Amino acid sequence: MAVIVADLHPGRLFSPWLAPVAIVAGAYLVVPFIGSTYLFEAILLPFLALSLAGVGLNLLTGYAGQVSLGSAAFMAVGAFAAYNFNLRVDGLPLIVSILLAGLSAAVIGIVFGLPSLRLKGFYLAVSTLAAQFFVQWALTKFSWFSNDSASGVIDAPALTLAGMEFTGPVGRYLFSLTVVVVLTFLAHRLTTSQTGRNFIAVRDNETAARIIGVPVLRTKLLAFAISSFIIAVAGALWAFAYLRTVEPAGFNLDRSFQILFIIIIGGLASTRGAFLGAALIVVFPLLLSRLGSFLLGDLFDSGVLDMSQRIVLGALIILFLILEPDGLASLWDKIRRRSGSAVGRRA
Question: What's the pLDDT score for residue 6?
Fold first, then answer.
């Protein structure tokens, strides 16, 4: 009976979910009332979109072990496909347009994921560049995708969900937050399911996975499809909720590397790591800009900022790969365990 009571202790039941639930509750109930326009526009909206893109790429690279350098291409597919579905199908709800855009990206992801059946590692990463270059070329070459806009720029439609229109920084933040929370929860559930275990088995050893009955080829293509779907939704949020207008050049190779850096710094095979990495990527340039302006004044212009950002981020990635290859998520766990041990000793 004592064992049963111990197993039913509330702390054991709810502790894994206590922090995420508290964070989400604060994000909905506190942040909209205390946040400034700058906080939403410059930090939270890009953070949410990039975090979701990191979650999608982490499913593919962190869990399934398939390296991709074409994430920005699928963000572009999500933005432009959602724009066209919403524009050309009368009465179609925006959220349905975004979901259809995600499905479109999933199909394209499967096509460009076919080389993973033969290629691995560096060679697979190079082959995924085909998606990056092809998508950007198609969006630039065929003006139909941008509704015959000479510059290729598209403007965001009104954000609506369940009959409610989300306007202004707070409204766009709540719209993005809702989409990110739902998809992140589903992605986390996926990683703990049999499909997630298949992803990990393929990542660790394809031969062993095949021997124990894991459908390796189907698992790889499923990873590309699900990852592309989530990244495409993130692209729609980037275009519609954050920038409000976007062009194909906004989804260039630098954006793909940025998302890759997010999961490397945050921690591979960690849903939480995607959010930690995105937070660093979003906040770091702002802090660097303030620090540079304080120390160097007018000499610290946008060119110097961009160069400094690349140098420092590159150094951080090297340090993480050497000192903490599991990223910020692992570092946070270590700090929490040490803090808990210190409290326990004092008690």
Answer: 41
